UniProtKB/TrEMBL annotation:
The lineage of its organism: Bacteria, Bacillati, Actinomycetota, Actinomycetes, Streptosporangiales. Transmembrane segments: none annotated. This is ABC transporter ATP-binding protein. InterPro entries: AAA+_ATPase (IPR003593), ABC_transporter-like_ATP-bd (IPR003439), ABC_transporter-like_CS (IPR017871), ABC_transporter_ATP-binding (IPR050763), P-loop_NTPase (IPR027417). Keywords: Antibiotic resistance, ATP-binding, Nucleotide-binding, Transport.
Length: 309
């Protein structure tokens, strides 16, 4: 079993009553790899994490964490896990240092208190009561507690929600260091930039299913490039050219009619050339002209609209 990936999910399904929150998903996460789960609200990310954490059983399919069933073999698996839930609960009257000490009391092989505080950048707040921490600082304390036992597998549910950009970047550095040290991480986030910074691989979930998965480059590739511009007032939509074999998709943005073209891989330069020749031929100035590669955000939005491959 030594070569088994730390996380193995095959055909996982999880229902709440008649509602299927996770509808048959499969993925593996290797040692020292960070896998990000992205998706719309209610896509099933937290439910998936809760199943991996052993809080709830799978209704169908196989879930293995460190080679074991995390729900049935919870006592064996739990000591190797670090868990940062979406909402932490602290004793409001304990200070940050007391909170860490309290957790150290029941965490085998726990890091020294100051090391844990340094990981979260909270040394200066050691004597502050947890109820006086800001939302972002509470997330940082929660991260320190999740890392206390030097976990082999770390679950982070929206770890940087409420953090300012500096705290978010500091958290990313901490997470990257932990991954570099060999910890396997599964993370959910609504920040696409966070996934772009941290994820070795990611999945975009929608309605309980994984719609797209791979490295950021793999996920974005195949979604091609995009050309858009504001449709000049004197033109009808029917007058617009076909570019690279694609007709314009029309939308309205801030009161302007915008034409957008999805261009297949490698087709951006000739399509742009075609467009500019057409505009010259009609003596048109194309306002708001943009030509760019697909981004993770484009793929995410297409997935949310149910259009991704
Ligand atoms: N205890 C529960 N009872 C009933 N339905 C639930 C329960 N927990 C979650 N759900 C439903 O299951 C679906 C998936 O929820 P989940 O929290 O896994 O989504 P998520 O992808 O983490 O969403 P978000 O991004 O909003 O946190 C949602 O429709 C949610 O309403």
């Amino acid at each position: 079993m030594h070569n088994d990936p730390p996380i193995h999910v095959d055909g996982l399904r999880r229902r709440y009553g008649d509602f299927e929150a996770v509808a048959g998903i499969s993925f593996e996460v290797g040692e020292g790899e960070l896998y990000a789960l992205l998706g719309t609200n209610g896509a099933g990310k937290t439910t998936t994490l809760e199943t991996l954490e052993g809080f709830t059983p799978a209704h169908a399919g196989t879930v293995r964490v460190l080679g074991r069933d995390p729900h049935r073999d919870r006592r064996a698996v739990r000591p190797h896990l670090g868990i940062m839930l979406q909402e932490a609960g602290f004793f409001a009257d304990l200070t940050v240092a007391e909170t860490v000490d309290h957790w150290r009391g029941f965490t085998p092989g726990a890091r020294p208190r100051d090391e844990a505080l340094d990981l979260a950048g909270l040394r200066a707040k050691a004597k502050v009561r947890t109820r006086q921490l800001s939302g972002g600082q509470k997330r940082r304390l929660d991260l320190a507690l999740a890392l206390l036992g030097r976990p082999r597998v770390l679950f982070l549910d929206e770890p940087t929600t409420g953090m300012d950009p500096e705290a978010r970047r500091a958290t990313w550095r901490t997470v990257r260091d932990v991954v570099a040290g060999g910890t396997t991480v599964v993370l959910t986030t609504h920040y696409l930039e966070e996934a772009e910074h941290l994820a070795d691989r990611l999945a975009i979930m929608h309605r309980g299913r994984i719609e797209v998965t791979g490295t950021v480059a793999e996920v974005v590739a195949g979604h091609g490039d995009r050309i858009s511009f504001a449709v000049p007032d004197r033109l009808q939509v029917a007058d617009l050219p076909v570019l690279g074999g694609a007709a314009a998709a029309i939308s309205v943005d801030s009161g302007r009619t915008v034409a957008a073209y999805g261009i297949g891989p490698g087709g951006l330069q000739p399509a742009l050339h075609e467009l500019l020749r057409w505009a010259d031929g009609h003596a048109l100035v194309l306002e708001g002209l943009q030509a760019r590669s697909a981004s993770l955000e484009d793929v995410f939005l297409r997935t949310a609209e149910g259009k991704a491959a």
